[in-house]
Specification:
The protein is mainly alpha-helical. The protein is 63% helix and 5% strand. It has a single domain, classed as Four Helix Bundle (Hemerythrin (Met), subunit A), CATH 1.20.120.
């Protein structure tokens, strides 16, 4: 697994069951608090440390989670209101290099995650099986993705990035 994928890559095959969805929604609901706990007590100097050689600074990781999950919520809403829409990809690496990701206090993104995930989980908890079967098309990967699968992908995504922070803390004993 290593430093890049401390919990491994997301892998789910087969049907997404109600039990999967419930667990993944719970994971999404818990992510803001887990992210907050992961960075608790870190100094600005520590937040500027990369989680691995060639990787993002810890503060960039927090801002990236907010950027990524904002995009995901929008993709969900597009899929729920349009017929298999093509979503707008974005260059996450270039976004992470913008000044807000490199310099802004992480508290802004931690608060954003709390509000965003509250709205997202409220929405996810009201969707029907038919809603979860809705899809969007991702032009960059050339994949059509179902919303039920994406719930799992983003539940994993949050855990993946929290593990970047916690694994560095464990390695550095910070």
């Amino acid at each position: 697994m290593g430093f890049r994928y401390p919990i491994g890559q997301f892998a789910h095959t087969g049907e997404v069951t109600l039990a999967h969805r419930k667990q993944w929604i719970q994971d999404i609901a818990e992510l803001p608090q887990q992210a907050r706990e992961a960075v608790k007590g870190l100094s600005e100097e520590q937040l500027c440390m990369p989680y691995r050689e060639g990787g993002w600074m810890l503060k960039q990781v927090i801002h990236h989670i907010a950027d990524s999950h904002m995009n995901s919520v929008i993709r969900f809403k597009l899929a729920l209101t349009e017929d298999t829409p093509a979503i707008r990809p974005y260059d996450e690496t270039r976004w992470a290099e913008l000044s807000d990701s490199r310099e802004l206090d992480i508290e802004v993104s931690l608060q954003l995650l709390e509000a965003l995930h509250q709205r997202w989980t409220a929405l996810l908890n009201t969707l029907s099986d038919e809603d979860y079967a809705k899809q969007f098309y991702h032009p960059a990967s050339k994949e059509t993705m179902r919303l039920d699968y994406c719930v799992g992908l983003y539940a994993w995504h949050g855990k993946h990035h929290v593990a970047h922070i916690t694994s560095l803390r464990n390695r550095q004993e910070i």
